[in-house]
């Protein structure tokens, strides 16, 4: 057995159930996997699979049929269960849902996970992504805040802006039965958004006169979209000005003009 799998089996021992990402694991002589939101649903209400590699298809599309370019995004489809799995098959299914997660977790716990800073990752980019080197530390933090929150990605970023410049992206604490998925370097989607952020920062500012009510209206509409009041757009389509991450970047950049109100936070809590 691979050392990472052995460590994961040991971690599971003594737990009736556990969670990795959005996958709930029921332990025992045989393992069962479900979406964590379906853990209490009747088996008859779920589509039953016995092949661990059914996870490949389940992980590919959202409930409404959209492609999932980011496997760690919190939009895993619901309504299924994979049953009758021995431990190797359970690990194979989990690796389809979250590729490399167990191996990265094991290396992280042993202090042997290779971590690459944003600056080093951007420096090795070529072609149209070469401009990602132009982002300053504040802009990198802003991009990470938009891309690496639990609302966008369930991984725990371990990388920093550069060796002496911390990223300082906070993640909420997780219960002991939840296995954290470490993120050792900026992913391709974050770099794609960083490229868009460079272009946004390069645009010439405009002198526009707005009233206080105008600003409140704009801020209210944008925060309403972030709170789920509008349709979600295709992940990675950062040219769409209505994209959630474009909107969040805008709000973070101009947070003095569009401060959060208590009503905004209440709306997010309700969603």
Highlighted features:
271 residues, Alpha-Beta Plaits, 3 domains, 6-stranded mixed beta sheet, two-stranded parallel ribbon, 10 helices, 10% strand
Write the layout of secondary structure elements.
Elements: H1 3-12, E1 17-20, E2 23-26, E3 31-35, E4 47-49, H2 54-58, E5 80-85, H3 87-97, H4 101-109, H5 118-123, H6 137-147, E6 156-157, E7 178-179, E8 182-183, H7 188-202, H8 212-226, H9 244-253, H10 262-270
Parallel strand pairs: 1-7, 4-5, 6-8
Antiparallel strand pairs: 1-2, 2-3, 3-5
Question: Biggest sheet, strands in spatial order?
Answer: 4-5-3-2-1-7
The first-level CATH class of the largest domain is given as Alpha Beta
C-alpha Rg (nearest Å): 21 Å
Characterize the biggest β-sheet.
6 strands, mixed
Q: What is the domain total for the residues? A: 3
The appropriate CATH architecture of the largest domain is 2-Layer Sandwich
How far apart lie the N and C ends? Answer: 42 Å
List low-pLDDT spans. none
Structural class: alpha/beta
Number of strands: 8
DSSP strand content? 5-15%
Alpha plus pi helix count: 10
Determine the CATH topology of the largest domain: Gyrase A, domain 2
Percent helix, as a range, is 25-40%
Q: Topology as H/E string? A: HEEEEHEHHHHEEEHHHH
The geometry reads as globular
How would you explain this protein's 3D organization?
By secondary structure, the protein is α/β, with parallel strands linked by helices. It has three domains: 3-109, Gyrase A, domain 2, CATH 3.30.1360; 114-203, Alpha-Beta Plaits, CATH 3.30.70.2320; 208-271, no CATH class. The chain contains ten helices and eight strands. It has helices at 3-12, 54-58, 87-97, 101-109, 118-123, 137-147, 188-202, 212-226, 244-253, 262-270, and strands spanning 17-20, 23-26, 31-35, 47-49, 80-85, 156-157, 178-179, 182-183. The strands form two sheets. A six-stranded mixed β-sheet has the order 4-5-3-2-1-7. Helix 1 (3-12) crosses helix 4, helix 6 (137-147) crosses helix 7 and helix 8 packs across helix 9. The longest helix has 15 residues, at 188-202. The termini are far apart.
């Amino acid at each position: 057995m691979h050392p990472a799998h052995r460590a994961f089996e040991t971690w599971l021992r003594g737990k009736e159930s556990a969670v990795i990402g959005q996958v709930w694991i029921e332990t025992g002589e045989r393992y069962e996997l479900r979406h964590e939101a379906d853990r209490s649903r009747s088996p008859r209400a779920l589509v039953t699979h016995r092949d661990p590699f059914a996870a490949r298809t389940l992980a590919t599309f959202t409930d409404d049929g959209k492609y999932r370019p980011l496997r760690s995004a919190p939009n895993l489809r619901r309504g299924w269960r994979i049953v009758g799995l021995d431990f190797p098959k359970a690990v194979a299914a989990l690796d389809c849902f979250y590729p490399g997660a167990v191996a990265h977790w094991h290396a992280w716990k042993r202090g042997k996970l290779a971590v690459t800073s944003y600056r080093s990752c951007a420096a090795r980019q070529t072609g149209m992504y070469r401009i990602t080197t132009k982002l300053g530390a504040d802009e990198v933090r802003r991009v990470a805040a938009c891309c690496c929150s639990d609302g966008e990605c369930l991984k725990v970023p371990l990388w920093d802006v550069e060796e002496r410049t911390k990223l300082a992206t906070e993640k909420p604490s997780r219960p002991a039965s939840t296995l954290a998925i470490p993120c050792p370097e900026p992913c391709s989607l974050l770099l794609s958004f960083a490229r868009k952020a460079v272009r946004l920062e390069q645009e010439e500012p405009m002198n526009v006169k707005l009233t206080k009510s105008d600003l409140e209206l704009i801020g209210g509409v944008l925060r309403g979209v972030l709170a789920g009041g509008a349709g979600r757009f295709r992940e990675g389509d950062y040219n769409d000005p209505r994209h959630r991450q474009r909107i969040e970047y805008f709000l973070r950049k101009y947070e003095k003009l569009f401060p959060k109100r208590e009503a905004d936070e209440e709306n997010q809590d309700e969603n």
